[in-house]
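We modelled the chain as a single entity of 253 amino acids. Its sequence is:
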Amino acid sequence: MNLGGPISAEPRINDRIRVPEVRLVGPDGQQVGIVAIQDALRLAQEADLDLVEIVPTGRPPVAKLMDYGKYKYESAMKAREARKNQAHTIIKEMKLRPKIDPHDYETKKGHVVRFLNAGDKVKITIMFRGREQSRPELGRRLLDRLASDVEDLGFVEFAPKQDGRNMIMVLGPRKKKVEAMAEARAAKAAKAESGSRVRDREDSADGPDVAESGAADDVLAQNDTSAHDVAVHEAVEHDAEAQDTVVQDPAGQ
């Protein structure tokens, strides 16, 4: 009976190890032997490491000198990588009619090919209606045709079988799920790298255009300034001529 609350999954370390002696293992895995707990703690402190109880049920318990924080981090990374590469069996389903249209058949077959390439199983269901139920050979022929069309990618794991109004067949992938996941990640990384190279080329191609555009803007600005100066000069000369005319008229009188 657990009267002290939930049992911790963490191992006991350092002064939490409440035993008189331990079988000590060094940081590199070497066997030190059975030592008193005080001596084991002193060795851990001198090496700037932790004393970690790795086999609490041993007689005496086995403890190891290690960097516990680093050990926890590396263990978490390994567990994360294992979960990432873990293959989950997924069964996709595709439903067809015995008298399916050729175009619809190609579309459905394309989905089956995609599922098998991803490492998934595919459950194929032929749905019979009305008088079609009296002709199960139509469904069997269609299933055999589909299995033949995708035999390079999958195999018949569960042979066609009548199930009420339906006929069912299961295709298994020839490619393992882990391999399919690795290929998908590699393709995604290659696509991202290719996109990055395209963006770099576009940026480098835009560089000269930007410079030429800036130079063109400078030329236009200079032209505008020159035109403005000419207009101002002509206006000044025109005003001067007008003033001369006004002064000379009284003299003429």
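As a brief sanity check on the tokenised model: Residues 238-253 have pLDDT under 50 and may be disordered. The helical segments are 37-46, 68-84, 102-117, 136-149, 177-252.
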